[in-house]
Amino acid sequence: MAYLKEMIKDIAQIGLDAVKFHLLFNPYSYLQNEHPLMETVKKWIFKEKQWDEIFKYASKNNLDTIALCDDVESLAYVNNKHKDIKAIELHATSLNDYFMLKEALKFNNQIILGVGGSTIDEIEYAVNFLKEHGKSNIFLMYGYQSYPTNYEEINLLKMLKLKSLFDLPIGYADHTAYDDQNNVDISSLAAAIGINVLEKHYTPDFGIPRIDYHAAVGKEHMMQIKKKMEMYLTIYGNGSLSMSEAELKYGNIGPMKKALVAKIDIYKGEKISFNNIWFKRTEKEVPIKQKEFIKFIGLEVLKDIKKDEVIDFSKVNYKYIISNFKDLAGGLEEKK
Fold first, then answer.
1. Where is the AFP-like domain positioned along the sequence (predicted)?
2. Fewer Cβ close by (within 10 Å): the C or N end of the chain?
3. If you average pLDDT over residues 251-272, what whole number do you get?
4. For residue 235, what is the enclosing H or E element?
5. What pLDDT sits at residue 321?
6. Nearest-CA neighbor of 64 among 130, 116, 139, 175?
């Protein structure tokens, strides 16, 4: 309990959003009686009052709580006493477990489905089961279930395909080796393609052998991962097609985009034509957009315009003209 609270406190100090707990109440509901892990697992199990204290401690540290439940009993516990937590999760081992899915239906908030090592039809079964019973707040958690993971097998693109195929949000659960020099980059790279949820194993005792230590990072690595994720997500953006102030400034006519100028000296009374105009970058911003040059073709110049001088409507006798030009290099047909 003390060790777990230490981790919760660290996670809060790092500034992460949520902590996920692995719940199991009845090992006989999860493992065969003669399973070699049975006696070990029994020693790890917290009682309900202990979990009550843990959930309360996480909330006190301003962390959302996610309950990864391994048995129906732990799901029932959450449904009876902690329905207000952020989410429950069904591990990939229970993805098509009818009884687990049935109990999960009683939970009102987000339901996370662990889909690592699962086929499309297995994911489809679970998603359809929940949707057919009125659940829409479903989230997929993708993770290559290998400890530690060979990064060549992670296949981040698969996440985007699953997200599109099921029209559901998706997150990435990373299990890169704790001592891999690329751990921080591998863990945070999913954010570069818009995946804004990352799950990582955490330990206060980095590199010291414990359960899952080989895929767990310490405080320093977790802070680096958080920082990189924030940067990648900022760069990824929101997909808006509207231009930012910087883009608008960069797109100014003249200093950046070339402005309409006189190619040669144009004298009063002459007309603007394809032969006496050009586009050049200028020191100052001008109001005439490049595509508006056609409005000037055929107009009479009111005063002399020197070579390289910007052409605008103050220098021509402007009348509304509907222009139809067949050959930009050759001629112009005008209709007044």
1. 259-319
2. C
3. 91
4. helix 219-236
5. 53
6. 139
Query: 157: closest CA among 192, 181, 122, 118?
Result: 192
pLDDT at 282 over 60: yes
DSSP 196-207: --EEEEE-SSTT
Tokens 């001008």 locate to 286
- Those residues with Cβ within 8 angstroms of residue 214's Cβ, 6 or more apart along the chain or in another chain: 147, 148, 177, 178
Render pLDDT for 73-100 as a digit per residue (tens, 0 to 9): 999 999 999 999 999 999 999 999 999 9
In Å, how far are 30, 253, 304 from 299, measured between CA atoms? 85, 22, 13
Q: How far apart are CA 63 and CA 23, in angstroms?
A: 17
The C-alpha atoms of residue 248 and residue 264 are separated, in whole angstroms, by 30
Question: Which CATH code, of 3.90.228.20, 3.20.20.70, 3.40.50.620, 3.90.700.10, is assigned to 2-236?
Answer: 3.20.20.70
Joined tokens for residue 61: 């540290």
Q: Which amino acid is at 248?
A: L
Identify the helix (H) or strand (E) that includes residue 251: none
User: What is the domain class of 247-335 according to CATH?
Assistant: alpha beta
Q: Which pLDDT tens digit goes with each residue over 39-64?
A: 999 999 999 999 999 999 999 999 99
pTM for the whole structure? 0.82
Mean pLDDT value of segment 295-321: 91
The Cα–Cα gap between 276 and 274 comes to 6
CB 192 within 8 A of CB 199: no
Maximum pairwise Cα distance, the chain: 103
CA distance 33 to 272: 93
What is the CB neighbour count within 10 angstroms for residue 280? 13
Q: Do residues 33 and 83 lie in contact, with contact meaning Cβ atoms separated by under 8 Å?
A: no
Structure tokens at 71: 């048995």
